[in-house]
Write a structure and sequence with these properties.
The chain is of the alpha+beta class. It has a single domain, classed as Creatinase/methionine aminopeptidase superfamily (Creatine Amidinohydrolase, Alpha-Beta Complex). It is 26% helix and 24% strand. The protein is built from 4 helices and 15 strands. The strands form 4 sheets. A 5-stranded antiparallel sheet has the order 8-7-9-14-15. Strand 4 and strand 5 form a beta hairpin. The structure holds magnesium ion (2 copies). The site of one magnesium ion has 5 residues, from loops. One magnesium ion binds next to strand 4 and strand 5.
Length: 271
């Protein structure tokens, strides 16, 4: 990947303030999109809502124009249903009771990017899928809690790995989180597991901003790309969950820039 040629940057207080503004907008719109999820809604309707609200706020949907195997991406959201892990394309597909939909969303505003994702139940879902969603979101916050000065990058990914593997789930290893700032994808790469090499031993310092995004599967960790060239799905067809926030390391600990309601930070708490 090109990432390695760039340097890991730490953001100034002024840059973090801009990332706070875009992060909050991402969180607010994602909350509105989440509220629209119900049986009968199409993934394209969710995408339209996200794009309208982004443009109304003066932002640019961050995913539009991202290069892919068959030309640039054209949507504001990635919508990944059931066994789809990430990068599902909005379409006329109607959601049905019992589905789960991963909604991934990014905005560019005033030169800075925010990136967040949530997996949402459609009506009543199977208990084992509820537990998968809860564990994945909790693992994200376990990782966020490690984003403190002096910790290492491996502490972040290791927190996801430890939490979900202890519960019998698997961590997708083909995709990872990332640094974020002026660009959506900046170094370092942030695997959701302990790794060797790369930036795994990087010491976290104030001003580092990361998008952490565990992708966790009910069955095997293996994934494959569907014939549309974008959609990544589990190899065994079992469900997957994806949650993401953009987080700054501050002197006093992590600040979750894409979190709107800090008191109710777990969207899956009531499941
Ligand atoms: Mg994302
Ligand atoms: Mg991301």
């Amino acid at each position: 990947m090109r990432l390695r040629r760039d340097r890991i940057t730490r953001k100034s207080a002024m840059e973090i303030e801009k990332m706070r503004v875009v992060g909050r907008l991402v969180g607010e719109i994602l909350r509105d999109v989440r509220a629209m999820v119900e049986p009968g809604v199409t993934t394209l309707e969710l995408d339209r809502l996200a794009e309208e609200k982004t443009r109304a706020a003066g932002g640019i949907p961050a995913f539009i124009g991202v290069p892919g195997p068959r030309g640039p991406y054209r949507h504001s959201l990635c919508t990944s249903v059931n066994d789809e892990v990430v990068h599902g394309i909005p379409s006329g597909r109607k959601l049905v009771e019992g589905d789960v939909i991963g909604i991934d969303f990014g905005i560019v505003l005033d030169g800075y990017v925010g990136d967040s994702a949530v997996t949402v139940p459609v009506g009543q879902i199977a208990d084992e899928v509820k537990q998968l969603l809860k564990a994945t979101e909790e693992s994200l916050f376990q990782a966020i809690d490690r984003m403190r000065p002096g910790n290492r990058l491996n502490d972040v990914g290791g927190a996801v790995e430890d939490y979900v593997e202890a519960r019998g789930y698997t961590v997708v290893r083909d995709f990872c989180g990332h640094g974020i700032g002026r660009k959506m994808h900046e170094p370092p790469q942030v695997p959701n597991y302990r790794s060797r090499g790369g930036d795994s031993n990087l010491i976290l310092r104030e001003g580092l901003v990361l998008a952490i995004e565990p992708m966790v599967n009910l069955g095997v960790a293996d994934v494959l790309t569907l014939s549309d060239g974008w959609t990544v799905a589990t190899a065994d067809g079992k469900q997957s969950a994806h949650f993401e926030h953009t987080i700054a390391v501050t002197e006093s600990g992590p600040e979750v820039l894409t979190l709107v309601d800090a008191e109710n930070y777990l969207t899956t708490a009531a499941l």
